[in-house]
Amino acid sequence: MDAKRLIERGPCHWELPATGMMRVPVAVFASETLLRAMDDKSVEQAVNVASLPGIVGASCMMPDAHWGYGFPIGGVAAFDADAGGVVSAGGVGFDISCGVRCLHTGLRRDSVLGVQAHLADSLFKHIPAGLGSTGAIHLNSQHMHDMLTGGAKWAVARGWGTEADLERIEERGQMLHAKPGAVSEQAKKRQRDEMGTLGSGNHYLEVQEVTQVFDAVIARAFGLTLGDVVVMIHCGSRGLGHQIGTDYLSRMVEEAPRHGLSLPDRELACAPIRSDLGQEYLGAMRAAINCALANRQILTQLVRDVFARHLPAAKLPLLYDVSHNTCKLETHVVAGHKRELYVHRKGATRAFGPGHADLPEALRGAGQPVLIGGSMGTASYVLAGTAASEALAFSSACHGAGRAMSRHQAKKTWQGAQVVDELAGRGILIRSPSARGVAEEAPGAYKDVTAVVDAAEAAGLALKVARVEPLICIKG
Amino acid sequence: MAASAKTARWEHFEHAADIGVRGIAASKAGAFEQAALALSAVIADPARVAPLIRVEIECEGQDDEMLLVRWLNALVYEMAVRSMLFSRFDVAINGSRLRAVASGEPISVQRHRPAVEVKGATFTALHVAQGSDGQWTAQTVVDV
What we know:
The complex is a heterodimer.
Chain A: E1 7-10, E2 13-16, E3 26-28, H1 32-37, H2 40-50, E4 55-69, E5 71-79, E6 86-88, E7 99-108, H3 109-113, H4 116-126, H5 141-157, H6 163-166, H7 185-191, E8 204-213, H8 216-222, E9 228-235, H9 238-255, E10 270-272, H10 276-310, E11 318-323, E12 325-334, E13 337-346, E14 349-350, H11 361-364, E15 369-372, E16 380-385, H12 389-393, E17 396-397, H13 407-413, H14 416-425, E18 429-431, H15 435-440, H16 449-459, E19 462-475
Helix pairs in contact in A: 4-10, 5-10, 7-9, 9-10
Chain B: E1 9-14, E2 19-25, H1 28-43, E3 53-60, H2 64-82, E4 84-94, E5 97-106, H3 109-112, E6 120-121, E7 127-130, E8 136-143
Antiparallel strand pairs in B: 1-2, 2-8, 3-5, 4-5, 6-8, 7-8
């Protein structure tokens, strides 16, 4: 996009003032280089979001923002229910509560390299990945109800993981006020055999090495040192979340005129928070958050079981679990006043600063771990939330690299086998059921994740703590 | 099939993060069939999927575009809960109602090598219309 349209508000912080139908400005957090690369459509979407009823502060774009559905991916917007605010299914996305969790292993690079190929094969065998894979877990309707209300807490009670895991998950592992009754039977049916599965597309499980530490004090609080091996899992609420997104997007489109909402783009479909549809969606979406938390919790146990076979000394405590497609009711200080706001983060990570009451005691001094997934051949980052992020973007930061090239183009540009061989030559083992899937996710199809996190740090959204690089990638 | 093989075709089109599916045919129903083939081809090569099992699908939409979204989402749902891929579609549209038979077979990861799962059809670049040449186009972006 053209930077001339914007006012520079600070380092990597730009503003498009409110004009026309906009109720608030658009705030863009990006370097000039990232800004130039941002497509005009994503900015147009952020402008449309800025026109929605009840929006507070600004319609925000993170450094990895790109064209999404109604809302830009990498978009953050907060709404006040008392001011006629809305909740939007497109503002959360199809993969509700898609997120990243990071596990310590207590291992160093050398001990993993000794069993790298066996570990890769074993993880690929035991972690269901890709389309057509099902887990070993099959839920009846009572279990489904319990899972949708209990989240990771339900999973732990059934033996997947430990109580200690829960305090390292947003919402302590259980999203309250979920309404399984607002989830369609179709959505539940799609999920019956999908618990403990990774999914496909950009979802993955990686074994990674800490290759750089930027902030030694916070890294120590997070338990990360140079050469440590960690595991990162990126996946979401699987078929259940996809179906809830599908169901409610259609309903919000159809019912918008009834709520007096005139939308510049059908995909901005939303409902007043204080409406039956708005409340039903929030209840269903919270159930999907629980599904995603339970799913990542089950996958965690599967990973621990695999490590126990190959590296029995390894313990895999949870560093943290973040969700980057959500709408959550949070308290934020806006212009000196505390307000209860419904914060949509579509492809954006919550990033609470030091001292926030929702953080577990062990992390409270350091700030919330913000886990940023890169592409499979490059790097991922661990960041920490800052106090400044609240005033800038309702305590939010970026979520990943963001695509630089369409799947269509990537498929034409690379062969899956060639990508696998090239990465193997660099010591990164890829295991995937689909060569075409690997080609579509080739590292070159993504933006530079380092440029994204550098911009997030320069803007004050989060602090860089550590860089991690993959040794093994299980690609769905 | 509702449209002649001569004119009916499908294609994918670009979207930054996802992929667009487009069906083109002499009739609206034919364009919907071709869009469904384009959807299948996002996942795997339809030529490798044998049309062995028939699944009946019905849906409704307040306009043609909503009907296309509902049709593609019905297919996404049936593929997910039946663990199937489809390669043949016979569609009939009567006003706001669509009735169809989708034919396919259970997914074989070995044989079909599915590349990616489709999460749902979106309203992005959604368009159903008859062009000046009489050809119908039915398209939208699907989230993968």
